[in-house]
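For this section, I looked closely at a protein sequence along with its fold in token form, which I now present.
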Amino acid sequence: MKRVQVAVIGGGAAGLMAAIKAAKTGAEVILLEGNPRPGKKLLATGNGRCNLTNLYISPEHYHGDVEEAAGLLARYPAEKIIAEFEKMGLLCRADSEGRVYPNGLQAAAVLQVLWGACEEAGVEIRPDFPVSNIRREQGEFYITDGQETIAARRCILASGGKASPKHSKGNGYALAKNLGHTVTNLTPALVPLKTPLKLCRSLKGIRCKAKAALYGNGKKLGEESGEVLFGDNQLSGICIFNLSSLLNGEKAWEVELDLLEQWEEKRLLSYWKQLGKNRPDLPAGELFSGVLPVRLGQGLVKLMVLIAEKPLGSLDEKTLIRAVQAAKAFKIPVTGPGNWDNAQITAGGVPLSEIDMKTMESKQCPGLYLAGELLNINGDCGGYNLHWAWLTGMAAGENAGKS
């Protein structure tokens, strides 16, 4: 039986960083990964460009056990993550919204420097080792894939969540439970929202800027501006992905889109009144054509049950007010989040109250450290989730190795 000082389970962002930091303390480290190669999911992040972190890291961009995570987020700002990658030989750059990418805009470059750092630090990487069970006896962890067992003094569990199951199976939650932890309800996050509205199917492929607000039983849960993409019975886009993390236990969800955020209602009403005077014979079906994507405008006309051939000059003020409301408060019912295949991250996980947030060591199982998506915190789009993976991996690796 092979014995090591630190075993890291999971070769994603958190696991790779944890292995590097643990090995740099002088500890003997083995990294166990279920896939043929570690870092597979990392290659898909940021549309293949790998959005590493964000210059504006703060608790307000996270959901879950945010209060418990605030101190750790403060100790590991974006600058610390950027500096860590520069030490490994990767230069980074930020865009106008604070999103930080590798300078070459390739996720492959990030993975390459992580592999190189593992090799230089002496980390043994064991791919095709899907951990099926961990037991702790007499101060050691016995880790098996059902065929081989490895013994370790310290164990770092960083095996990822349930999102994107082709990259991560989510078996780490069962492993954490077997070692004494609880797991909150798990739901897909940063995912499209499903809607039964038939109009969305006819609008498939349409993109538009909007302010999107999510409601649950009439109560506003949050709002965000950005590009909204209409799909086959679904809504997506970064602002929609971020709102998906706010879905609560209510069932009466609704998204309200302000499709003309920069226009006040009075100004829009005045515009259409004047247009009716200037072009009285313009068909009412073209009411929205000059302000919204054509197919979207035609869809709103149908929702208003407005006769498309009716001349614009014949529309009364009451009808024009309805048009304003249709554009400024387009209500779309939501039945829930999309499935795990389309999710970028998992909402829920091991409560941070069960973790020593200074070291990432388990309070339930001494010698066990947890990092990354397994924990009950998830961030918005924009590098916030990878930032969480890096910082928890760094903290877990450093402290596991030193101990």
Summary: The mean pLDDT is 94. The longest helix spans residues 384-402. The first strand starts at residue 2 and ends at 9.
